[in-house]
Amino acid sequence: MNLQQDLKRYKILIEEELKKVFPKDNIPQEIILESMEYSLLAGGKRLRPILLLKSCELVNGNVQEAIPFAIAMEMIHTYSLIHDDLPAMDDDDYRRGNLTNHKVYGDGLAILAGDGLLNYAYEIMLKTVIENKYSNKFIDAMNEIANSAGFNGMIGGQVVDIISENKEISPKILDFIHLNKTSALIEASLVAGGIIGEANSQEIQLLRDYGKYIGVSFQIRDDILDIVGDQKILGKDIGSDIDKEKSTYVSIHGMDKSIIDLETYRDKAIKIMSKFDKNKATFFVELADYLTVRDN
């Protein structure tokens, strides 16, 4: 099975699980569930939940045990996109090929839809923790995800990104933004899957490093696509970073160095996977390569 087939198979699994998570009762606040579902079920690569399941599989874990955490991770990622698209932040009109949440439901409901997805993600993970009698591996996986999404992770990266607009920033600050705003959730997905799969400490560190490398390469490719990408393929506005005078990897390092560094991070990620079972690591090797050339 090649990478695209594997991605498609796991994406279908994630999509089916996402469709089950919301209650279908007729309730007064039904509109917020509709708004949450609008963004959550709008498609996307589902990269983070797939990575969580595949890392669990990589270390011979039970993938079924990891599904609630994969669903929670996608909810957290989607909440961040809803808020990121708001007028007070990036002010984008399109996401995943559709109008952004606030363009359909208004700013207030979009904010609450993001809040709802974030909170529901923790409800789902806690339910699994309780049902498994407070098993340490589920607690540790939840802790990893929580830390990556907070002010020491994704939110911290978003904060520095916002306060850096219309300013010249150092490569060090840009690295901080990328490692936290983008890479943190990717890294946590891999680590959480490894924890649930009962990986040893060495394997956890390898997964963490792999996540860091592909997370940064993912963002570099995004910065490149913001200049050379096709809006119809990307499913979102291009040139928005330039319009907002935001510093990107390309604006600081130039296109040629960005491409070179992208390939360097790919090679580092691939090297890490040589430490794992060759057959099971093939997915991760091919993924690292794919992320350097993707067009969406």
UniProtKB/TrEMBL annotation:
Origin: domain of life: Bacteria
Gene Ontology MF term list: (2E,6E)-farnesyl diphosphate synthase activity; metal ion binding
Entry cofactors: Mg(2+)
Biological process (GO), any one: terpenoid biosynthetic process
Catalytic activities: isopentenyl diphosphate + (2E)-geranyl diphosphate = (2E,6E)-farnesyl diphosphate + diphosphate
EC code(s) of this entry: 2.5.1.10
InterPro entries registered for this protein in UniProt: Isoprenoid_synthase_dom_sf, Polyprenyl_synt, Polyprenyl_synt_CS, Prenyl_diphosphate_synthase
Annotated family: Belongs to the FPP/GGPP synthase family.
Name the UniProt record assigns to this protein: Farnesyl diphosphate synthase
